[in-house]
Structure formats: structure tokens, C-alpha cells
Amino acid sequence: MLATHALVLAMLLFGLGLIGLLVRRNVLYMLLSIEVMLNGASLAFIAAGSRWAQPDGQVMFLFILTLAAAEVSVALGIVLQVYYRFRTLDADAFSLMKG
Amino acid sequence: MLKLLWLIPALPMAGFLLLALLGDRFTRRHVAWVGVGSVGAAAMINGLVAVGFVRVLPDVTSYTQTLWTWVETSGMATGIAFHLDALSVVMTLVITGVGFLIHLYSTEYIIDTGKAGVSAPAGPEGDNDEGYRRFFAYMNLFVASMLTLVLADNLLLLYLGWEGVGICSYLLIGFWYREPENGAAAQKAFIVTRIGDTGFAIGLFALFASFKTLSIQQVQTLAAESWPVGSGIAIAVAALLLAGAVGKSAQLPLQVWLPDAMAGPTPVSALIHAATMVTAGVYLIARMHVLFSLAPPVHDAVAVIGVLTLLLAGCSALVQRDIKRVLAYSTISQIGYMFLALGVGAWSAALFHFVTHACFKALLFLAAGAVILSLHHEQNIFRMGGLRRHSPVTFWTFLIGASALAGMPLITAGFYSKDWILWEAWSAPLGGPWLWAGGALGALLTGLYSFRLVFRVFFGDVRTKPHGHPGPAMSIPLIVLALLSLGAGVLELPRTLGDSPLFSQFLSSALPQLEPTVDSLVPSEGVLQLAVTLLSLLGIGLAAAFFLPARGAVEHVANTAWGRALRMFWLEGWGFDRLYEVLAVRPWRRLTRDAEDAIDAWYDGLAESLRRFHVSLSRTQNGNLRWYAATVGLGALVLVGFFAF
Questions:
Q1: Contacts of B417 (CB under 8 A, 6+ apart)
Q2: CA torsion B540→B367→B283→B233, rounded to 10°?
Q3: Could you tell me the pTM of the whole model?
Q4: Residue B501 — φ and ψ, nearest 5°?
Q5: Are B131 and B125 in contact, with CB atoms under 8 Å apart?
Q6: Contact A92 B626 (CB under 8 A)
Q7: B412: left (phi over 0), alpha (psi -120 to 50) or beta
Q8: pLDDT tens per residue across span B127-152
Q9: What is the ipTM of this complex?
Q10: How far is CA B630 from the centre of its chain?
């Protein structure tokens, strides 16, 4: 029962993050949205781990935490570089590479 | 020593690979050493093999060396296998020997071409080392292919060599490829010979379908057993092989490519378009002689083609203005003699003329090359003259070559080989007075056109000032070939003059010999010899009367309306080019240029729809980050949906 609620919450978090990623144009907000999505995914792991009484879900959460930290540090570096070059944080402005 | 056989084609091949793959680090000196050395080494090994072969000769008449299996399918195992018998010994000795001399000559000729810079056609190609290396790489590849052709144990390997020499011929005719007409000449040579080759290939298919093997020995044994003389299949196969031979050897009706092939450098004309490659057709017919004996109509056609070609080309050679084109038509004409000999069954006589012709025609081309070089690439004989005093080596060697070509009696090799052919043309069972008459008339024409060349180029006033003299690398091949053109006749002395048939005895293990017929209708050998000799001398005398600069007799004849028309007709090679242009080239061009036809519409439609598809796909790559995120999300959704339900 608990797991079902937690999974619904995780789904909501993931969906909200995805919507945020798609509708926000500011790169920083897009990164924030990705964090929300990651949290949704982590929550799903935790819920699944508690449902099957397995430690794996929590291990996966730790992994995702580490991944998120690494991802943000790299992404912020890129954002900084992009800002120097374009003087804006609007993601739609970075569309030079197209087919 | 026979075990060294595989090295003969392998060495020039190794030379080609070395020059093609690693040659960019070589200086010109290295390139020359590799290019000439590989052929020279092959010639030496060839000498050893020939000696080894002669030693075992009476007991062993052939030696086969299989290196590995090449194709194994549907009951046929075709090997990379070389077959040595008297016929291939003669062929390989000429190819490597004359080939070596021509390579040696080229080291100087091609350098000079570059340095002088007068070979404007060369552009930057001729005067840099890339062009030099390219030349020797192609030449080595040619020699390797030609040796493969004549040593091949089976028809498939022979065909490989056959196409190999074809591609080398194409590459070397178009050697100075910056000039569009050289490229056109190369394509013409390639396409015209391809017509014959297609027939040849179909002939091979027919042989394979009948016998399930392509081994030359087996095919001929099986054919002789299972096909009656004059049967339809034998005639068809022989005719298809003849088509291949006619294309390669520039005989009627596929002779149009050879005069244009003179666009290549002169050593190429000497090696490929005079001494070796164009005689591949002669070799093929001699090699497959059993098949031709089974098809009498085709066998007769060979002789008729030979006679017609030698007369046609002899007339055309009379009026050409370009020194190399005269020699090209003369080559066609001399190969016509070889075809005549093959057609009456005088296989050894054809081979003997091949040997002597290789010597004196290579000599003539190389001497012509020396003339052309000393005159700043002037090839028009009407702008030459008086070169006799300028370079005695060139003059004397050219004179010897021309005498051998004209069949100057007793002292030249050409006399003995041509005399033998003409004697057989009448006395052989398949021969007859008409064939003899054609050949004898050809001898008159030969004397006329070869000495026209000598008188125009070397006598009279100096019209273009010559410069420079051939160096040792050019003089030595000239002198050696001149000696051979004089002396090669002793290999086969006719019954009337010494009676020493060394050459035909040697070949008798590979090719059947003709028994002299005792027929009261045939004049004696001596009478025929005398007649041909007188005709040749008459030709030379007429040339002296017409073309020695002091006489103007020929101008009167040539300038009448009839004379001019005839001259133009002969100059263009009897209008064959124009005929083919109207019959084949133009209709084909019209067909291909019509953009509205259904086949084009289908391919155009295909191309257009692919283009549209690709444009619409590339539109999805719009560079917009959020669009990418959305598509990734959508894709994940589709995948999850796909696996969940």
C-alpha cells in the first residue's frame, strides 16, 4: 500500500520534472527540473526496495545521489562556459548545431 | 631450373607493388632501378628457364607449375598455374627481352620528356617524380600481366592476364591525362577491345558449359574427342575466341583503336602497341589451334581477315602524316601477316614473324622516339627532314628497322619471316594463290611506306632544327634491337637458302608443323621468293622515286581530285571511324542523352524521393535542446509502452 502511494508520488515528481524540463527555457531551471526527475526515480527505487524488503533499492539511491552530484557539477561548468559565450541562459539560443 | 618459372611473372609484379605502394620515398634513380631491374631479372631468369627447358626438350615437352588453387567450384578447380612449352618459351623470351630493352630506353626518354618541359601535355605530371614512378609502375604491371597471359595453364588465368594488359594499355595511352584527347584515345582503345573481349568471355562460358574445365590442355583434348570437325558448337566457340583475338590484335573490323593509341608515350607504343600486347590475339589462336582446326570456316576467316587487314592498313600507312601513326598502321598490317599465317595453319611461321616483328617494330618505334625527342616533340613527317647527318645512330638503326620491315632480302630478319609466311600462304593445304597475291601486294606496300618514312625523315632539307643526341640508355637498346633485326633470321633459314629450320623444330613439340605439299600447281619456293623479293625492292624503288625530296612525281598524282579524295579516305583509315560513329556511337549517345525516357524517370524519381526523405529527417536535427529532450522522453514512452503491452 505504502509502495503504491510512493510510486504514484515518484511518477508525479518525474512527470513534473519532465514538464519543467520541456517548458522552462532557462538552463538553470532545466537543471533543477532534472534534479526533480532524478528524485522521482530515486523514490521509485526506495519504494521498490521496501516493497521487496531488499537493500538494493537504497544502494541504487546512493548511486543516483552520487550521479546527480557529478552531473550537476559538470553541467554547471558547461552552463558557465555557455554563458560566457552567449551572454544568456536561454536554451533556445544555443541552437547552432543543426542538420 | 624449371622450378624458377613462377619468378618470371612474379618479379615484375613485385616491382609494380614496390613502386605503387612504397615508391613515394624513392628518387628517380631508385624508381629506374626497381622498374628496369625487375624486368631485367625476369629476363635473366627467363633465360635460365629456357636453357633448362631446351636441355630436357626431347623427352619432356612441357612443364606445369601449380602455385595454389584459385577458384574451386562446381567440380572445377582452377589454379594459379603456369604452363611452359616451346610456344610460351618463345613468347616469354620476347616479352622479357624486348621489354627489358624498352624499359631501359624509357629511363632516359621519360626523364627527358619531363626536363625539356616541351611535353606540354604532361603538364606538371611529366616533370615530377610522381609521373616517372607511375610510368614504371604501369609498365611493370603490364609485363607481369603479359607474362601471366602467355604462361597461363588455364583459360581463366589467361583471361586475367588478357584483361590486365588491357587495363595497362588504357592507363598508359592516357598517361598524359591532362590532355582530353589522350583520355578519349584511351577510352576508345579500352571500349573497342572490350567488344572483342566480351565475345572471348562468352566463348569461355561455352567451353566451360561443355567440358566443366578451363584447362587449356584438357579443353583441347576433350574438344578434339567430342566435337566433330565443322560442328556448330566448335564453329561458334572458335568464332567467339576469334572475336577476342581480333579486338586485341587490332584486326578488321576492330582495328580502329590502334592508330589513336599512339597518344601514349613512345616506349609504350613500342612495348604494348607493337611488340607484345597486340600480338596476344596471335598467341591465343596459336594456343587454341586445335579448336580452330575443328572449325574450318572460322579458320579460313582468320586468313581472309589477315589479308584484308594487311592491305587496308598498308594503304593507310602510305598517306599518314604522323610518324607514329605510320608505324601504327604498319603494325596492324604486320599482324595481318601473322593472321594470314595462322589462317593457313602455318603456326610456326606466325610465331616467327611475331619474333622478328617484335624486334624490328620495337626498334622503329624507339628510333622514332629518339627522332621525336630531338625535334621538340614534332611528329609530323612533313616538318622533318635531313636528320641523317644529325644523329647517325638514330639514322642507321631506323634504316635497319625499316629494311627489316620492308623485307630487304638476305640481310634482314623480316625477309625470312615474311618469305616463310608467303610461301606457306600458297603452298599450305589451306592456302591459295589469292592469299599469296594479297600478301605479296602487301609486301610492295610495306616497302613503299617504310622507305617513304626513311626518305621523308632523314633525307632532304632540315625543316625543324634538331637538338641533343640520344644518351647511352637510349642508344644501347637501339643498337641491340638493330642487331637482332638483322640477325634473327638465322633462326629459320628456308630450304632454298641454307635449310636450317631451328625455329620450327623447336616449336614442333607445341605446334603441329605443315608438311610441304607436292602440288604441280604451286610454283617452286625459289620462284615465289624471287617474286616477293622483287616486289619488296620495287616498293623501295618506288618510294625512292616518289619521296626522295628531289622528285615531285607523287605530288602531281596526289593533287588531282581523285588523288586527293583517295588520300583523305586512306588518311582516315578507310572511313571506319566515321562508319562506327554513325552506326554505333551517335545512336547510343542520343539514347543516353534523352532525359525523358521511362528508365531515367524511374531513377530520377527514386533519387528525388530519397532526397525529400533525407531533408525531412535532417529537419528533426534542429539544434533545439528542449526538442531533443521531448523526443527522448517520447521515445522512452513508446519503448515502455511497447514492452509493457
A1: B349, B352, B353, B355, B356, B357, B489, B492
A2: -70
A3: 0.79
A4: -85, 60
A5: yes
A6: yes
A7: beta
A8: 456 788 888 999 999 999 999 999 99
A9: 0.89
A10: 69
